[in-house]
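User: My collaborator sent over this chain with a note saying "see what the structure looks like." That's all I know about it. Can you take a look?
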Amino acid sequence: MSDTPSEVSRSAGPRRLGWLALGLIIGWSTVAAYALHAALPYNPIQLPFADRFDIRLVLPEGWAFFTRDPRDDRMLPYVRGADAQWSMASHTPNFQPRNFFGIDRAGRAQGVEMGLLMEAAREAERQGCEEAPVACLERAPVARKVSNTSPHPTLCGEVGFVFQRAVPWAWSHSRREKKIIMPSKVLRLDIEC
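Assistant: Without extra context I'll predict from the sequence alone. Here is the result:
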């Protein structure tokens, strides 16, 4: 007994869709593998055609498009409250209940706001700090008075910025009695909104 033409066409549709999905998975996995390999330092792994084709011509940023260097300094904003105490003013990470698990994009907007403020204060000098950043902010002079041009400002008044590297992953579970404090730089601004 042979299959009728309508039965053959019904089974061919899902099969073609499966082959298409497999082809897309293989294609994008290949692109990701070449982009990741281009971002790595020299290593003994050689990908086929890597010597004839430079992936950086197609993806100039390589893997950096998806990530940022974890060793870069983090910029952490602090505001001085009415009680004269410094408190963290960051709206990140974005996936928190206060940001409705990523629906509220205030954390992303605050990053742009901080970039605009840093551009306005680019010539202001940052003070080196070897202790808790809040203690250094307390002693640091106000470097500059700037205006916040953000449409929905989150940083106003006395604001301190701490530029500090994250604690390395290998030290994260250290059993030291004293908390690990990475060296940092601080900048104190008077921001007008």
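A starting point for your reply to your collaborator: The longest strand covers residues 184-192.
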